[in-house]
Amino acid sequence: MVNSQRSLIDPRNGFCNANSTFYSKRKPLALPSNDSLDVTTFISSQTHRGTTAFIDAATDHRISFSDLWRAVDRVANCLHQDVGIQRGDVVLVLSPNSISIPIVCLSVMSLGAVVTTANPLNTVGEISRQIVDSDPKLAFTTLELASKLAGSGISILLERVEDTLRTPGGLKVVGILREMMKKEPRGQEVIRNRVNKDDTAILLYSSGTTGRSKGVNSSHGNLIAHVARYIVEPFEQPQQTFICTVPFFHTFGLLNFVLATIALGSTVVILPRFDLGEMMATAEKYRAKTLILVPPVLVTMINRADEIMAKYDVSFLKTVRCGGAPLSKEVTEGFKKKYPTVDVYQGYALTESNGAGASIDSVEESRRYGAVGLLSCGVEARIVDPNTGRVMGMNQTGELWLKGPSIAKGYFRNEEELITSEGWLKTGDLCYIDDDGFLFIVDRLKELIKYKGYQVPPAELEALLLSHPDILDAAVIPFPDKEAGQYPMAYVARKSGSNLCEKKVIDFISKQVAPYKKIRKVAFIDSIPKTPSGKTLRKDLIKFAISKL
Question: Within 13 Å and on the Cβ side, how many CA atoms surround 154?
């Protein structure tokens, strides 16, 4: 930005009248000038006074920062020399949260290879489609999940030697992580300066409104920008302890708890899966001041506040950071009533933005209920009329467009436009920015259903419904729910003479999708309302469903 343009920016809200663009009010983002830099090397070069990197909540097993980096170096050498992983190869991570995931991901990325992750809850069919699309050379998985890869032809990396004894047939085990972590480097060390910051580092799959799962191509430069943002604007206090309740396969968990916290020297206590009681007991044990959650967990904490207060000491808890889905003003106020000494910090980002968006970062900012925060450092934003393309100003609602060094390169093997020719990411969210620069989410242009922070594409479920012999037509909509935020509801037009019931429809879908994608409510209708061009009028169905509440 030129100085003349900078002088036109309103310091109160960051808006520039000259180009109708909002600029971040946060500290400037400092990025390294070296183009031959991988994100692993960038993170390892950060100085901090942290000692313990990760703790396994179930076993209390700990790994220090020095041991972590030693393990990353050794595993990277073994992957390169023994397994043959090269720059550009894809490695799939299919595992519940564990200390092993950061080691694997950092090792793979240091080689210029690409990490792709899959939800352990996904079905064999869903995982198979991702494998066909991303073509991984290797998969890191657990004994319990290895069966989901049987028949894929992919080589696997397991954690322990004893796991190989019960590995399903048809899978080739080419490495044991714990053995790699012990192996001293031999010969020439892995050359890491071959990696360019524009090379792809991670390939995270984000469901689209068409129903096809799309890989989001993010570079080392994108991830470096994400980490650099937390170096400029760190979580509350560096070197503190965090309880990780979000999955590492998701951008929220991977970027924050596998990348940013390591750079800051913070300690992350890992829960393999979410359980409210285990989370509170773990937070109490390690005296964690901050919990990072998704909105449905906040709702549960409100509803079970008396039980939590009676059983656990929450006096240590000072902050809850919330992301993954919008958090309503009512939920925020309800939480504050139950936990008056705990401040709620919201955040907003997308898989496609690699953590960039907006966030609440102080007690004063958290008092702006309903807002998701101020723009992240290094981020520019525009509010655009989705119908006319006109760029708008303060307090005007339109589609949010974002620009900055964290924005992903594009969708993998998909022609759908992610970034405009000028570098703007069209978020698909209706928003406005107020007089003080706070971002508010009004509604979603996208048709994705947000169930407990997971994205559920209606078109995918509709395609499955239409494969049922008794279903003539179907539409899937988001149905509001206090705990989940939304859940999938189906409107079904039965074929003449069919006696298909709600339970049979629900069971039919449940067998084919991950639990978070299940249809939880069905209504039967004579015909699905559509536009003259054939598009489903979801808004009409949503209004009709809500009117029946």
Answer: 28
Buried b (16+ CB within 10 A) or exposed e, 397-414: bbbbbbbbbbbbbbbbeb
Which residues are paired to 166 by β-bridges?
Answer: none
The CATH number of the structural domain formed by 449-547 is 3.30.300.30
What distance in Å separates the CA atoms of residue 441 and residue 340, rounded to the nearest whole number?
25
- Give φ, ψ of 389 to 5 degrees: 80, 5
| Beta-carbon count within 10 A of 272 CB | 17
Per-domain boundaries in the chain: 37-272, 449-547
Written as tens digits, the pLDDT of the chain (549 aa) is: 555 556 689 999 999 999 999 999 999 999 999 989 999 999 999 999 999 999 999 999 999 999 999 999 999 999 999 999 999 999 999 999 999 999 999 999 999 999 999 999 889 998 999 999 999 999 999 999 999 998 898 999 999 998 888 888 778 999 999 999 999 876 655 555 579 999 999 999 875 434 466 899 999 999 999 999 999 887 667 678 999 888 899 888 899 889 999 999 999 999 988 889 999 999 999 999 889 887 778 878 988 999 999 999 999 999 998 887 667 777 788 899 999 999 999 999 999 999 999 999 999 999 898 899 999 999 999 999 988 999 999 999 999 999 999 999 988 887 667 788 899 999 988 899 999 999 998 776 777 788 988 878 887 898 889 889 899 889 999 999 988 999 999 999 998 899 999 999 999 999 999 999 999 999 999 988 875 445 678 888 998 898 877
In this structure, which topology does domain 37-272 adopt according to CATH?
Rossmann fold (3.40.50)
Pairing of strands 155-158, 52-56: unpaired
Beta pairing partners, 343: 319
Q: CA nearest 19: which of 503, 384, 438?
A: 384
Contact in structure between 200 and 413 (CB atoms under 8 Å)? no
**C-alpha separations of 84 from 37, 78, 234, 406 in Å:** 21, 8, 37, 30
Strands 213-219 and 410-412 come out as antiparallel
Closest CA to 524 of 496, 548, 500: 500
Q: What pTM was estimated for this model as a whole?
A: 0.84
Residues belonging to the chain: 549
- CA dist list (Å): 215 to 2, 93, 416, 427: 35, 14, 11, 16
Token couple for 170 = 């048809």
Distance CA 495, CA 53 (A): 58
Residue 179 half-sphere exposure toward CB, CA atoms < 13 A: 14
Q: What residues are paired with 344 via a beta bridge?
A: 320
DSSP result, 206-245: EE-TTS-EEEEEEEHHHHHHHHHHHHHS-SSSTT-EEEE-
Cβ neighbours of residue 248 closer than 8 Å, sequence gap 6 or more: 93, 95, 97, 101, 102, 117, 254, 257, 258
